[in-house]
Amino acid sequence: MVAVGLGNPGPRYAFTRHNVGFLFLDYLKSKGWKSEKFFEWNRAELDGHEIVLVKPLTYMNLSGVAMPYIMRFFQVNVDDIIVVYDDVSLKLGKIRVRKKGSDGGHNGMKSIIQALGTQEIKRIRIGIGEKPEGTSLVDFVLGEFSKEELEVLQKVFELSRDALVTILNEGIDKAMSVYNSLEVRV
Fold first, then answer.
1. Which helix (H) or strand (E) holds 23?
2. How many CB atoms lie within 10 A of CB 1?
3. Tens-digit pLDDT profile for residues 80-110
4. Kindly report the CA angle at 23 between 20 and 27, in degrees rounded to 5?
5. Radius of gyration from C-alpha coordinates of the chain
6. Closest Cα partner for 112 from 71, 73, 140, 141?
7. Of the listed 17, 18, 94, 96, which one is catalytic?
8. What is the DSSP annotation of 27-93?
9. pLDDT score at 124
10. What is the mean pLDDT of residues 109-135?
11. In 3D, which of 30, 28, 33 has the Cα closest to residue 46?
C-alpha cells in the first residue's frame, strides 16, 4: 500500500491546514525521508504491514503530475494507493474514508483524478473545518492551525492511523463503516 499525503512543499506551508496530508505522514514517520524528482518518500510499519508514505512535491494543485512517477517508481497501480488530504466540508475532528468519488472541489484530488483517469481512488479525508465568515478559502486553507487545533489534530491523526490499519487488515468497507461516524471531541 502507498499512502499519498497531499500538501505544499517548503517551510512557508509546513503547518497550514492544506498540508494535513503531509502532517499525517510525518505523524506516521517523521525522519528519514528520501527525495526523488517529484516526491519524497519513506516507509513505515503499521500493525505488521509495511506501507510506503509519499509526499508529492509538485504543489497541491498539481498533485496529479507526480502520480505516474510514484506509481512507476514503486511499481503499483491505482488499487494500491490511498490519498490523504484536507477537507473543508468536514469539521475538525472528523475523517471520511472513501473508496471512490469526485474531487469534491479539492484541487489536489482533482489533479490526481485527471492524471489517473479514474475516480476510483481510495482516500482518507481529514476535516479542517469550514472557513470563517469573511475569510477567503485560500487564506483559510493556507492559514496555520492554532495551538488548540493542533492538539485536536493529533487525536485525529491517531484516528486516521487506526482507519489506515483497518483498511490494511480488514478492507476499506470495514474502515468506512467504523470510522466515518466517529468524531474526536473538540
1. helix 20-28
2. 17
3. 999 999 999 999 999 999 999 999 999 999 9
4. 135
5. 15
6. 71
7. 18
8. HH--S--EE-SSEEEEEEEETTEEEEEEEE-S-GGGHHHHHHHHHHHHT--GGGEEEEEEETTS-TT
9. 98
10. 97
11. 28
- Average per-residue pLDDT for the chain: 96
Locate 47 and state its grid cell.
500493525
Query: Residue 101, class by beta-carbon neighbours within 10 Å (0-12 exposed, 13-18 middle, 19+ buried)?
Result: middle
CB 128 within 8 A of CB 17: yes
Q: Which amino acid is at 117?
A: G
- CA angle at residue 45 from 43 to 50, to 5 degrees? 70
User: For residue 16, which phi and psi values (nearest 5 degrees)?
Assistant: -85, 160
Cross-strand pairs, 82:
3, 122
d(CA 184, CA 186): 6
Per the annotation, the verdict on 106 as an active-site residue is no
Full set of structural domains in the chain with CATH:
2-179 (3.40.50.1470)
